[in-house]
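tool=predict chain=A
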Amino acid sequence: MKFHAICENHLYSKAYSKGKRAVTPAVAVYVLPDLKAELLRRQNPQKTKINRIGLTVSKKLGGAVTRNRVKRILREGLRAVMREKELKKGFLIVIAARERARDKKSTDISKELSSAFVKLGLFAHTPDAK
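tool=predict ok
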């Protein structure tokens, strides 16, 4: 599953300052409605809204090898959550790794991301749910 990345630094700053936040021991998730969602929907070949995802890993966690490993684990955890349940569309989602993410596996990260998304109300409601 391909992610649409947040490429501009000012969008990370906006998500940190104005977005809703959910913090777990290994990750912090920031969510902000994307103002360019409608424009991106029109440009998208499927004509659907998309989420833009940003991953951040601080140098406090370790060297480049460690940071890249943590980013790979975050991506795989996010893929597992997105396979399991559908997310609402049209948001900027920034996932920041915390110290404990270094020692976690992707299954642990997916559980923490899932609980953070529940706190933020980011899961789309399914029609058969009561």
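The mean pLDDT is 91. The longest helix spans residues 64-84.
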